[in-house]
């Protein structure tokens, strides 16, 4: 009894979901970069002379502007958010993999072909989940050693204290 639709249908839905996610993420990133560049351009146009610009750079807002210009405006969040995203994705994938493997072991009515497919998807999802979790741990340690975690926390404190 061969059932290729057991593998093909979920793969098609996963592919459509992934393509949609990539397109939406690219659109959001493009919009964020365009809005940031437009804002910075208008701000720089308001400063009439080099002297005004130099005075502006001496303020806290000027320092933040220069820091924002040097950072990737399209990347949401800092090191904390990227590490947290890897932990979340790793947890979800590991749980999915464990769930698929448990389903194949404890489902007596599942055909052999489907059991092999669910085992394969379960092992792949579990491996990806463990990989993301290990990547998050390595990123956290590396970011801590490079001082990126303290830098992002300090910039958040500055931003929060300057807002009314």
Explain this structure to me?
The chain is mainly alpha-helical and 164 residues long. It has 2 domains: 1-75, no CATH class; 77-164. Helices cover 85% and strands 0% of the residues. It has 6 helices and no strands. It has helices spanning 5-46, 50-57, 60-70, 79-106, 112-146, 148-162. Helix 4 packs antiparallel against helix 5. The protein is elongated.
Order of helices and strands: HHHHHH
Number of helices: 6
Integer average pLDDT = 79
Unreliable stretches (pLDDT < 50, length at least 5) are none
**Silhouette:** elongated
Reported for the largest beta sheet, the result is: none
Could you say how many structural domains there are in total? 2
Gyration radius over CA: 24 Å
Structural class: mainly alpha
Alpha-carbon distance between the termini?
68 Å
Can you lay out the helices and strands and say which pair or pack?
Layout: H1 5-46, H2 50-57, H3 60-70, H4 79-106, H5 112-146, H6 148-162
Helix pairs in contact: 4-5
């Amino acid at each position: 009894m061969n059932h290729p639709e057991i593998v093909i249908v979920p793969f098609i839905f996963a592919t459509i979901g992934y393509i949609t996610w990539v397109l939406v993420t690219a659109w959001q990133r493009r919009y964020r970069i365009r809005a940031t560049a437009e804002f910075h351009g208008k701000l720089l146009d308001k400063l009439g002379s080099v002297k005004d610009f130099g005075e502006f750079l001496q303020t806290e807002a000027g320092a933040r502007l220069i820091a924002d210009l040097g950072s990737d405006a399209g990347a949401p969040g800092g090191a904390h958010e990227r590490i947290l995203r890897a932990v979340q994705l790793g947890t979800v994938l590991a749980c999915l993999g464990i769930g698929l493997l448990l389903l194949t072991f404890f489902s007596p009515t599942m055909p052999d072909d489907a059991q092999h497919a669910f085992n394969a998807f379960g092992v792949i999802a579990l491996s990806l989940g463990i990989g993301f979790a290990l990547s998050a741990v390595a990123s956290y340690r590396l970011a801590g050693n490079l001082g990126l975690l303290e830098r992002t926390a300090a910039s958040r404190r500055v931003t929060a204290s300057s807002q009314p």
